[in-house]
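Need tokens for this chain, all 109 residues.
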Amino acid sequence: MFSRKEPRKKQPEPVHAPTAPHDEASGGGDGGYNAGMAVFSYIIGGIIVWSLIGWGLDYLWGTRWIVLVGALLGAAGGFYLSHMHGLTSHRISTGGNSAASGPSKDEEQ
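Here are the structure tokens for all 109 residues:
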């Protein structure tokens, strides 16, 4: 009897996901938008939460200034969290539009 050998099928290459969130921002995807929304939500969320805590303490102690301290503490805490998550780090883009980098350094003719 004859034996037929089937040709080997080529295995597809595995698709690798980006290893870190900052890879999307440099790739031109929507990572910059997502990082901006995360920074915004950390800061606004911190202001709201710590202002409410300050308002509660103001109500209990009969003061009027702790709510302002709470708002400032919340903004600073939100920025700190976004910085620690790596959302506010400065990235150097490779190629692309250089209009935001300042005036060109062309030689005069």
